[in-house]
Amino acid sequence: MKPIKVGIIGGTGYTGVELLRLLVVHPHVELTLITSRSEAGRPVADLFPSLRGFTDLAFTAPDEGAFRECDIVFSATPNGIAMTHARQLLESGVRLIDLAADFRIKDVAVWEQWYGMAHACPELVADAVYGLPELNREAVKQAHIVANPGCYPTATTLGFLPLVTSGLVDVADLVADTKSGVTGAGRGASVANLYSEVADSFKAYAVAGHRHHPEITQNLSLVLNAPVGLTFVPHLTPMLRGIHATLYSNLLDSNTSLESVHQLFEQQYENEPFVDVLPLGAHPDTRSVKASNMCRIALHKAGGSGKLVVLSVIDNLTKGAAGQAVQNMNIMCGLDEATALRSAPVLP
Amino acid sequence: MKPIKVGIIGGTGYTGVELLRLLVVHPHVELTLITSRSEAGRPVADLFPSLRGFTDLAFTAPDEGAFRECDIVFSATPNGIAMTHARQLLESGVRLIDLAADFRIKDVAVWEQWYGMAHACPELVADAVYGLPELNREAVKQAHIVANPGCYPTATTLGFLPLVTSGLVDVADLVADTKSGVTGAGRGASVANLYSEVADSFKAYAVAGHRHHPEITQNLSLVLNAPVGLTFVPHLTPMLRGIHATLYSNLLDSNTSLESVHQLFEQQYENEPFVDVLPLGAHPDTRSVKASNMCRIALHKAGGSGKLVVLSVIDNLTKGAAGQAVQNMNIMCGLDEATALRSAPVLP
Amino acid sequence: MKPIKVGIIGGTGYTGVELLRLLVVHPHVELTLITSRSEAGRPVADLFPSLRGFTDLAFTAPDEGAFRECDIVFSATPNGIAMTHARQLLESGVRLIDLAADFRIKDVAVWEQWYGMAHACPELVADAVYGLPELNREAVKQAHIVANPGCYPTATTLGFLPLVTSGLVDVADLVADTKSGVTGAGRGASVANLYSEVADSFKAYAVAGHRHHPEITQNLSLVLNAPVGLTFVPHLTPMLRGIHATLYSNLLDSNTSLESVHQLFEQQYENEPFVDVLPLGAHPDTRSVKASNMCRIALHKAGGSGKLVVLSVIDNLTKGAAGQAVQNMNIMCGLDEATALRSAPVLP
Amino acid sequence: MKPIKVGIIGGTGYTGVELLRLLVVHPHVELTLITSRSEAGRPVADLFPSLRGFTDLAFTAPDEGAFRECDIVFSATPNGIAMTHARQLLESGVRLIDLAADFRIKDVAVWEQWYGMAHACPELVADAVYGLPELNREAVKQAHIVANPGCYPTATTLGFLPLVTSGLVDVADLVADTKSGVTGAGRGASVANLYSEVADSFKAYAVAGHRHHPEITQNLSLVLNAPVGLTFVPHLTPMLRGIHATLYSNLLDSNTSLESVHQLFEQQYENEPFVDVLPLGAHPDTRSVKASNMCRIALHKAGGSGKLVVLSVIDNLTKGAAGQAVQNMNIMCGLDEATALRSAPVLP
Questions:
Q1: Per the CATH hierarchy, to which homologous superfamily does domain C4-127 belong?
Q2: Number of C-beta neighbours around residue B265 at 10 A
Q3: Which residues neighbour A251 within 8 Å (Cβ) at sequence distance 6 or greater?
């Protein structure tokens, strides 16, 4: 087949280097362009020596025109950048996959409140497809703009998805206690994310409100076609990669067997290449998905209370960002969805 | 004052070396004896070079008679050992502080079920005092046997304590999502706790049931004088020391202000030397209590749901084990409770 | 082409799971058999959930006959096991790649002294090929037994190799100060390698003598055809994967330019797919080769002394063990040497 | 005795918080003033919650006059700040302990070259005392300015000190391969020191030249009264605290016994409260001195070469910075040198 011409906006952060790691060995991708204001002129493999021998590309200064020749453009920038490029890319017939949040929230007012800025192209939000293939595979195929999901929303949505429409649990009282590795905090210079600040320590943050809360509730409410009640508490854990979501819900009928819930999950994800429902009794560790696009899910009834507990783990940089973006690109381009995403997790 | 003659049963594990770290600089303690079957004859400072210059003691083979001269004996062994020594120690007039679980659960049948063995002295359990000073200070003063609390129960109980009797929350639906550093898993040779198994990874464990569940419910139920409903899920996080408990409960009246709950906590812990209620908005990290006997607590209403979230952090080896044991000893011996526990946390 | 039938002896350790990670996606390998005494009957993906979906194989009890159908057998066991299987495998026409040390040292007496046991088949040692492709590529092609190099010897030999025959440095005074991640210590249950023993700490070990010393001196002496003098000090560093070798030597002529040494290295490794000589000024970090088969090398003159310093980094489980073993298999089977080894390093 | 009035310039970095940790429990210190341009007005315990309950002090804007009432002022700022305060402090009769490098190098031209700025008070450099008590205890007693040693220089100098004047080794060819925890890189916002950049990885840096090289050679040359030849290579290791120096030298007479060298070290450090010469055969890990002011030293002859290897470990924030500064203050004020420095290392 004709190679897919791919451009990247940004790409100096961790989702950027992960995207490059996946794309440089993708058999159908021709990486044509990568922009960065701060690193313009610098070879990519100079900034990320791990990529030496895999690409000769250098960062170039942002220039929208240059993307005109691309089939797909990934935006791996901070929030608020992709939306300033979207209109022109679309007009050039280029399809955009935004790894940031610009097109994730359908209610623009809600988006503007959480992200603290005016949206640059609110008229494009409705047509953007939320790129969780397990939810929106068909729509992704035709999408012009894919809003690649956030890391917490990916792990949490996949863990709650079979439940919300099952009628088995009280959707008004869902709790997501989530833990993230530090790469989730990005590659910007900051005291808060120094090794010496976060190593050998653990903390919650943003308990009173986090941007991923409206994204998750939007996902679950859309599926249910009714509002859900969600408590969402994120934590920072001293590891590089990984999201562990511990998800609590109350079974409406305490006699519901764990086996039946397990069956429900297995059916839901039967044909999904990147969701693995574990046997009963399992406790997935985040390293079991390290550097892979897999989401692993386990189910328990909590001792004492009988509350239903779903454990859902992903690699925040892969299934939680760049891997899912490549999965979306594969779908958009009619490729096998798992192309370039088939390597086994790196353990340990 | 006359020095307190102290003996230690066991002491080759992490709670043991932490106990030694605190006791070797305690101004009123004379460390007289430390036993270990496996390390008999070996100087303590040879096993733990961090203690070179602090003690000349060597491990000796277990010999109950030798403890006769002690005022206080700490048992820092695995579960099931202290109970085999208790009767003879009591008869010799020695007071016992057990850092393991032998005397924590009042219902012996429940204990035997969770710990998988017959209790060696069930008749002594009733008189043993559960050594959480914030709950039982007066009783500790006179105790002959102190059951030093578990690490998860310490962080969780202190976090829920002011709430359970407040009438503000639904005590039938409490959730404790707890995270522990790896020292909590002990110093025994095991594949599961190898660096290469737990570093750079995160997991839940024992979701279907954990020994600390009955201990926590016992604490809260005793305070409330009624049963509570608790979901308890422990996790292993790649750090050495620290417990982070994220505690969820539903406010019965959603108009209850966070300020009023904060005031309740401040009142409860006003005179406690080792419980620090943080200002509103704070997110304590576990390193803020590293190597110290402090418990720090913060309060939030979760964004979106309004659920009450209590964050409670301790060092599992200090307030969660050896530090609390020394605190109990100080109380038992009529000393200032904070003696030898006044150093500032080590940060970072 | 006809698939290569591959068997694995052992495979429950870290080199085993790394070997599996690489082989399960190797396009020309048919994994037919994996043995383990302790895990017989257990599915591989049950022990290592990271491999779920990649293999249905279960461990079987050791049975040499079963390997008869294999083309290649990897031995990923502790030292001393492969040699007990070698004779029978050879007689069955099976080619053996031993990831342990049984066939690395040509002088059997030296081997027996360092490994503390009698060699089971000393007569096979001479014909075994030391599987460092950069040294012995031609011999590997025809080898019946490949002694896969140790991790320290790989990083150290590749770093010193161009120098020893160059006449530029004093080969009587080479110093290798080497640092290893913890997976190098294996997956056996041991107190010494617990997370709580090695995290957040650093130490040297075996300064008075380490098994890899004779292996490295054998490599360098063979190349030079004369003895070399080597000081070798290994250290344990709190990370999962990676070897960093800091190699010191004295330039015989202090006027020798760093540029000329750099050129020497570039020439030596010009056509090597897995040795990357970095530009002058670089300091490779071990993560730049994480989960990859690459060795990166940088050169410096030390400030003040002008001593030549070579920095050489590998992933101990990949180029230092399983990756190199697959590289050797590829060479033995006439495949492109990089087959299944082309993925980019995982960063971070 | 009258309390020592102490002021701190800076104190928002890791040496600052370590200094505070030690001083808040010092029985003879009255902490009167701490300045910070960036944090002026903020309570110290708000920036560092670990200090809640230990001090009510708030940072104030820099104002030299305010230090007039102090007996001792610690400068815990970046390089180049203390020298701008020194003249006025001295004129006010205040004694200065600089934890940065402003007064460490006697040759001002060399200092200016390495630190890239003009010295603000070159005339004061000669009288400043290099505050390594093991070298300069008597001079420290009377010092008006103490140049507190760097972390690498402390570990390296203490490890080489007994050797350089012993006549046993070739002082023209000393090698110091040193490894530091990440707190040594400071608390400034930087990409290079993010958790996600340095965790699970290891690297050398500044091989071609590091500021601590001239400091170490100055120390050793002064003792020897002749030049020494030193190769110094620093590395960054993924841990919070700790320096591990691996020190190589050639015995002039290969028959020199390790026992005799050991005796030499024991004699040198016989009366030192903070240098611990370990028994032969030991390999100190950095955690054995965590959060303590101790330096532990072990000696080996390297297998194969017979080269003398000294292992020297300290906590870079304590003996390598704040602890040594307090030790110096104690000496300057006629106190027992170990006051407030007697706690046992925190292990693990």
A1: NAD(P)-binding Rossmann-like Domain (3.40.50.720)
A2: 22
A3: A168, A169, A306, A307, A308
List b or e across B223-250, with b for residues whose CB sees 16 or more CB atoms inside 10 angstroms.
beeeebbbbbbbbbbbbbbbbbbbbbbb
**Block mean pLDDT (10 aa), chain C, length 348:** 94 97 98 95 97 97 87 97 96 97 98 97 97 98 98 98 97 98 96 98 97 98 97 98 98 97 98 98 98 98 95 98 98 98 97
| Range C152-316: architecture per CATH | 2-Layer Sandwich (3.30)
Strands (E), chain A: 4-10, 29-35, 72-76, 95-98, 129-130, 145-147, 174-180, 203-204, 230-236, 243-249, 275-277, 295-301, 308-314
Chain D interface includes A198 (CB < 8 A): yes
Q: Which of D203, D244, D257, D286 to mutate to test the interface with C (most CBs of C within 10 A)?
A: D203
- Indicate the pTM of the whole model: 0.97
Structure tokens at C315: 């992933």
- State whether residue C109 sits within 8 Å of chain A by CB: no
The neighbouring-strand residues paired with D249 are: D308
Cβ pair A310, A159 in contact under 8 A: yes
Beta bridge partners of B285: A203
Interface size A-C, in CB pairs within 8 Å, comes to 84
Query: A221 is written with which tokens?
Result: 């409410």
Phi then psi dihedrals of residue B235, to 5 deg: -135, 155
Residues of D in contact with A239 (CB under 8 A): 199
Do residues B16 and B335 make contact, with C-beta atoms less than 8 angstroms apart? no
Residues C315, A58, A21, C29: is their CA dihedral positive or negative? Answer: negative
CA distances from C97 to A59, B64, C12, C332, D328 (A): 43, 56, 17, 10, 60
Q: How confident is the model at residue D65 (pLDDT cuts 50, 70, 90)?
A: confident
Equal fold, B4-127 vs B152-316: no
pLDDT band, very low/low/confident/very high, at D157 (cuts 50, 70, 90): very high
Helix (H, G, I), strand (E, B) or coil at B343: coil
Strand pairing partners for B146? B97, B129
Domain D152-317 is found in CATH 3.30.360.10: yes
Does the D4-149+319-332 domain belong in CATH 3.40.50.720? yes
Where chain A has pLDDT below 50, the residues are none
What is the C-alpha radius of gyration for chain B, rounded to an integer number of angstroms?
20
B52, B321, B53, C209: which is closest to D285 by C-alpha?
B52
Q: Domain coordinates of chain C in residue numbers?
A: 4-127, 152-316
Of D187, D191, D199, the CB nearest to A199: D199
Tens digits of per-residue pLDDT, C74-94? 999 999 999 999 999 999 999
The pair of structure tokens assigned to B254 is 């959603």
> How close does chain B come to A84, measured CA to CA in Å?
29
Burial class (CB in 10 A: 0-12, 13-18, 19+), B183: buried
Alpha helical stretches, state H, chain B: 14-23, 44-47, 82-91, 108-115, 133-142, 151-164, 195-198, 212-224, 258-268, 323-332
- Token pair of B98 as six digits: 């057990």
Which burial class, exposed, middle or buried, applies to D272 when counting CB atoms under 10 A from its CB (0-12, 13-18, 19+)?
middle
Q: How distant, in Å, are the alpha carbons of C163, D97, D119, D217, D324 from that of D104?
A: 38, 11, 12, 12, 14
The β-bridge partners of D72 are D6, D95
With an 8 Å Cβ cutoff, are A21 and C296 in contact? no
C-alpha B242/C-alpha B240 separation (Å) is 7
Which subunits count as partners of chain B given 3+ CB pairs below 8 Å?
A, C, D
Over residues B50-67, the mean pLDDT reads 92
Both tokens assigned to A223? 């599926």
